[in-house]
Amino acid sequence: MPEVQKPTTTVDDATKKEQEPATAKPPPPPPTPVAEIKSNVALLERAVTTLEPRFTHRVLRSLNTLRKRLDDTVLRNAVTELYTKDTPIKKALLSWIPSGSSDMEVDTASSATPSKTPASEPTPEGEIYLRLLILFHLLASPSNYDKCRDLAHETVERMQTLNRRSMDPIAAKVWYAVERVYELRGELAQARPLFFAAQRTASLRHDEETEASLLNRLLRCYIEYSLYDQADKLVSKTTFPESASNAQCARYYYYLGRIKAVQLNYTAAHTDLQQAIRRAPPPKVAPGFYQAVHKLVIVVELLMGDIPQRSVFRHPVLEKALTGYFEIVKAVRAGSLSQFQTALSSYSSTFESDKTYSLVLRLRQNVIKTGIRHLSLSYSRISLRDICVKLNLDSEEDAEYIVGKAIRDGVIEGRIVHEKGWMECGGPKGGYGPEVAEVFSRRIGYCLDLHNESVKAMRYPLNAHRKELAAAEGAREREKELAKEIQEGDLDDDDMGGDF
Amino acid sequence: MAQQNLASQYDQLKRAFDARPSDLKKCGSLLSQLKIRLIEAGLLLPQGQPNLQDLVVARDILEMGAIWSIRTRDIPSFERHFAQLSTFYTDYSSQLPPSSRASSILGLNLIRLLTQNRIADFHTTLEALPLPPAARASDPFISHPVNFERWLMEGSYSKVWNAREEAPAEEYRFFVDSLMGTIRNEIASCEEAAYDRLPLKDAATLLFFNTPSELLTFAKERGWQVDLSGGVIHFNGKNEEQAEVMPRHKLIAASLKYARELEMIV
Fold it and tell me: Are B205 and B251 within one domain?
């Protein structure tokens, strides 16, 4: 079929139409990608006309599954079916879809649905959505990266000239695609000015979803190059829009947690990462993110002096990814420096690629602290020499300083008797006191926050309160009647009572 | 004209800087003139795509400036130079040929953060180093401060004390000396918590003092009770009394907060 294999810019509508009825087959039960794209574009149109961003979000939710089923022909058919007339927009869209490689079987099958062409042109949102799909499709193969970047630039320009509020959620996704392009080409740093300019505009125009997305892009940009200082400054100078979607929030909290962990602010990092886990999509849907957050959480928990729960390492999504971390946890728990060293050296490449290596290195002191705590619990008096041997320390002198520091930092209760060269350990603390209250208050605070946030996150349908009002009115009416009846009944009762 | 001026002054600075012992005063005056020239040429904070050769010269001047500030013991000036250099080290790292002084200056900056007890900044800077974590151990200029930090955090103070002589460059000495002051204070606070009493002689070795008189002045500063006849220092156990006090305000504030939140829920 030479007509179709020609460059797509010249594909003629008429020839296409002729082919379709000839090869028409009943559509398979799940909607073909083309049909899905078309219905999505229709949904977008509805979103614009009804001013209801919910439809747009629904469309974008299906983006990931749809993305895997895209190919050249699907996209080309979708475009040709959506744009009936030959407009510059259609031409521009078609020019970006790679030509050639057209597999006719797929072609005919997917375009099989008898085209009930929409009466009017799709909205600009629809156009950008199609561009987004093409972007994702181009991203799938490395040979298209150059083309992809050009398309990304053109799309961004187009969005900015269109300047429509209803475009906000789609624009956020487009920016994600822009970032992917730059990242895959390994020149993420060059995209920074572009993101900054766009972030400024977005925040001025209150495009909150876009702004959230761009802030995440910028943070990723910095953290990719380990520029935590700049990332921290960016966070302190900007406010993350409250109404941003959960996916963006999760990412943002993850980056925040990362920055704070590097700055040794472990408690704050831990809260942020917990937020990230809670906001993240379910582990099966986004395993990569889930794993990345958990890796960081485990290290941060260890640095805080806690031991992560065993169940985390049994989670089907996490089990494999966390093996290295599991070894480290075991070493810290046992307080064995040698075990820690072997785990560190055997999994160093994993930690380095996860960018947690330097954080894990910091755990060394925690291993020592746990070791000393173990000793202080099991001995009432132990010589510095023995501490040295048990913890694999280099010299007795070191042991003395280390124990002294542990006592000062409140890790253990005890005294050093220098003349005799031993450490006397005080009894363990009772389970009552201010610190218990503190732990409780932390937990209670967490629960209250959770409650408040879930209240805030509830969605109420528009105008629903009217119905409720009406219902309440009716209920009141009924109540009145009931009261009346009761009154009358009372009277009856009284009457009856009188009879008795 | 301006370019020529720059070049000749740059040569002068190089000669003055490399001379042993280097002429600090001359370097200083040359440096301030050179920086004005750099600003005129738009190279102090380069933007866009300037000539690479010019950038190398500018970086060299600033590096010398940074080292010069340490030799003259001017820390704020070092900080300024380092801030100006960071543009060259991060943004132009892929285009410029690597500088031989870069790692020593980065290491000096790390030590500076350590002596100022800015541990969080220390770690952010360390993360931003253009080296993979494993390579940090092999670079003597970087591994020196990194080891210092680790030993300080574990409490292996004697290792820090012993490593003070192993400074990889002359300039490290300056920071290391001020670091020793910090360490002494750290050790002293540990001793206050960990010991009831300590013989004078042992205290001196623990705190790295050579003469008893140094120890006595130090003990006075920290308010320790020195029993000269028995040769023992007594530490006041003041921490224990403080621990017994109930944090009343905290508890009341927390209870009020719960009450308010519950009110909101119910």
Answer: yes
Give me the residue from B127, B134, B153 closest to A228, CB to CB: B127
User: Per residue in A433-452, pLDDT tens?
Assistant: 677 888 888 889 888 888 88
Q: Which residues of B touch A405 (CB under 8 A)?
A: 154-155, 186, 190
* Structural domain contains residue A53: yes
Contact B123 A348 (CB under 8 A): no
Q: Are A145 and A60 in contact (CB under 8 A)?
A: no
Q: For chain A, what is the domain count?
A: 1
- A295 assigned to some structural domain: no
Domain contains A80 = yes
- CB A244 within 8 Å of CB A279: no
- CB of B119 within 8 Å of any CB in chain A? yes
Which residues lie across from A414 on neighbouring strands? A425
Range(s) of the domain holding residue A68: 1-186
Same-domain status, B206 and B184: no
* Number of structural domains found in chain B: 2
Q: Which residues of B133-146 are buried (b: 16+ CB within 10 A; e: fewer)?
A: beebeebebbebbb
Q: Do residues B77 and B191 share a domain?
A: yes
Q: What is the ipTM of this complex?
A: 0.72
Greatest alpha-carbon span in chain A: 104
The answer to whether the Cβ–Cβ distance between A361 and B194 falls below 8 Å is no
- A319 pLDDT exceeds 80? yes
B201: distance to nearest CA of chain A, Å?
11
pLDDT in tens, A256-269: 999 999 888 888 99
Measured CA to CA in angstroms, residue A473 lies from A469, A479, A480, A483, A487 at distances of 6, 10, 11, 15, 21
Residue predicted with more confidence, B236 or A471: A471
> Are residues B162 and B230 both part of a single domain?
no
Give the count of Cβ contacts less than 8 A between chain A and B. Answer: 113
Q: B250 — contact with chain A (CB < 8 Å)? A: yes
B89 shares a domain with B13:
yes
Using one digit for the tens of pLDDT, what is the confidence trace for A31-88?
A: 677 787 878 888 888 877 777 777 787 778 777 777 777 777 777 778 777 777 777 7
Q: Verify that B89 and B29 share a domain, yes or no.
A: yes
Q: Which residues pair with A424 in a beta bridge?
A: A381, A415
With CB atoms and an 8 Å threshold, state whether A402 touches B187. no
Please answer yes or no on whether B123 and A403 come within 8 Å at the CB atom.
no
Q: Look up the domain containing B182 and give its range.
A: 2-197
pLDDT of residue B237: 56
Chain A environment of B222 (Cβ under 8 Å): none
- Please report whether residue A470 resides in a domain: no
From CA A301, how far away is CA A307, in angstroms rounded?
6
